[in-house]
Amino acid sequence: HAGQLEVVRDPTRFKVLTCGRRWGKTRMCAAICVHEALDGKRCWWVAPSYGVAVIGWREITNLASQIPGVTVRGGDKLLIFPGGGTIQVRSAAGQTGLRGEGLDLVIIDECAFVREKAWTEAIRPTLSDRKGRALLISTPNGRNWFWKVWLRGNPDEQEKDADWRSWRFPTVSNPYIDPAEVAEAKRNLPERSFQQEYEAQFLDDAGSVFRKVMASATATERDIP
Fold first, then answer.
1. What confidence tens digit (pLDDT) does each residue in 48-65 have?
2. Per-residue model confidence (pLDDT) at position 178
């Protein structure tokens, strides 16, 4: 759909998406991975746990199975494409397993539930020699490190990093989701749950939505009255 196409076509190196549930972020990124692997690129799909990783693996293999000559190694969660490209699905639960080869693309699924050190100490260095790209996708989980990297590419922030771009897509922006279903969820869920899970809002500890918050995230003691 239109939101997915906007993300796919954007050339920014590091992309951060906070999305409502059922927006289509997993399917979109699975298609991106397959496209890159067909072009001979080396790709990883990283998830916070084995159970979440299997969801991405299923989406990727459903697409890759339509391509002649793709080798599937289920035990290693590895696909090898005829042109030499690869996709490997990994869990971030064991950080040591995220070190090693240089990569062209990394997808971090449900990034808000992955430890920050998995990105800073293991995944980000794998992109350096090949100048690889990354997509960090998730529903929000409060104001943790995923929120902070989302701020780096938020066009509404004055300190936006040119190598980063961020988006927020509520569930209702997926045209294949019945708006009546979203409206029903809004009526019946707690407000905080609906804001986070369907509207993809970053909430503070009290449940309010934070906007224009880069100054708050980077404030020093001298800035505080």
1. 999 999 999 999 999 999
2. 96
> What pTM did the predictor assign?
0.86
Nearest to 56 by CA among 41, 72, 44, 73: 44
CA angle 23, 175, 173 (to 5 degrees): 55
Question: Which one, of 46, 25, 43, lies nearest residue 33 by Cα?
Answer: 43
Are the beta carbons of 107 and 44 closer than 8 angstroms? Answer: yes
Cβ proximity of 57 and 64 under 8 Å: no
What residues pair up with 88 in beta bridges, in sequence order? 44, 78
Of 70, 113, 71, 67, nearest in space to 91 by CA:
113
Which strand ranges, in their side-by-side order, compose the sheet holding 133-138? 71-73, 78-80, 86-91, 42-47, 105-108, 133-138, 14-19, 164-169
Q: Give the pLDDT confidence of 107-154 residue by residue, as tens digits.
A: 999 999 999 999 999 999 999 999 999 999 999 999 999 999 999 998
Task: Kindly state the tokens that stand for 41.
Answer: 């690129």
Question: What is the signed CA dihedral for 124, 158, 199, 107, rounded to 10 degrees?
Answer: -20
134 has which bridge partners?
14, 106
**Cα(98)–Cα(95) distance, rounded to whole angstroms?**
5
